[in-house]
């Protein structure tokens, strides 16, 4: 039923809490887990001038670290992974990735990193639930 499970991450504990659900879905169906981190252009573009490139590099390094941590957990469970870092609007890039990679199901945390980011990330999850065209499992922080 599922060959490709998408686990988007923003590096937060909430995003990491969805990993168990992604592992469970992938293990049940012998599926590959796709890990995706999106460098949010609105954050990267908030820095003036030359600092913009520095912010992008920091966000990219954060994404690489977040993906590596999740990749280790998933591979420890005996599952295959594929990873990608994209740049743009998180909603749009995740939806595009769903189509590009022919994703079958998405597991995602329901809120973001900090109180200030929760509204934005929550809206990403809401957007996925409404627009993805595939099942989306929204995992709350426990």
Structure description:
By secondary structure, the chain is of the alpha/beta class. It has one domain (4-139): Rossmann fold (3-Layer(aba) Sandwich). It has 6 helices and 5 strands, in the order E-H-H-E-H-H-E-H-E-H-E. It has helices spanning 13-17, 19-29, 41-44, 51-76, 90-100, 115-131, and strands at residues 4-9, 32-40, 81-88, 105-109, 136-139. A 5-stranded parallel sheet has the order 3-2-1-4-5, with helices on both faces. Helix 5 runs parallel beside helix 6 (115-131). The radius of gyration is 14 Å and the shape is globular. The model has no long low-confidence stretch (mean pLDDT 87).
Question: Topology, pairings included?
Answer:
Elements: E1 4-9, H1 13-17, H2 19-29, E2 32-40, H3 41-44, H4 51-76, E3 81-88, H5 90-100, E4 105-109, H6 115-131, E5 136-139
Parallel strand pairs: 1-2, 1-4, 2-3, 4-5
Compressed to H and E, one letter per element, the order equals EHHEHHEHEHE
Query: What is the CATH fold-level name?
Result: Rossmann fold
CATH homology superfamily name: HUPs
Largest sheet: 5 strands, parallel
Name the average pLDDT. 87
Q: How much helix, percentage-wise, in residues? A: 40-55%
The dominant shape is globular
Integer tally of domains: 1
CATH architecture: 3-Layer(aba) Sandwich
Question: Can you tell me the CATH class?
Answer: Alpha Beta
Total number of beta strands? 5
As residue ranges, the low-confidence spans are none
Strand composition percent: 15-25%
Structural class, please? alpha/beta
**Radius of gyration from the alpha-carbon trace, in angstroms:** 14 Å
């Amino acid at each position: 039923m599922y060959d490709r499970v998408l686990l988007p991450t923003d590096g937060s504990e909430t995003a990491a809490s969805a990993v168990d659900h992604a592992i469970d879905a992938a293990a049940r169906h012998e599926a590959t887990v796709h890990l995706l981190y999106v460098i949010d252009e609105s954050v990267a573009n908030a820095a003036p001038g030359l600092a913009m490139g520095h912010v992008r590099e920091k966000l990219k390094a954060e994404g690489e670290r977040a993906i590596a941590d999740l990749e280790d957990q998933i591979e420890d469970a005996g599952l295959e992974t594929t990873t990608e870092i994209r740049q743009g609007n998180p909603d749009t890039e995740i939806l595009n990735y769903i189509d590009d990679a022919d994703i079958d199901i998405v597991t995602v945390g329901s809120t973001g990193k900090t109180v200030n980011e929760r509204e934005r990330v929550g809206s990403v999850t809401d957007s996925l639930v409404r627009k993805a065209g595939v099942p989306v499992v929204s995992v709350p922080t426990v």
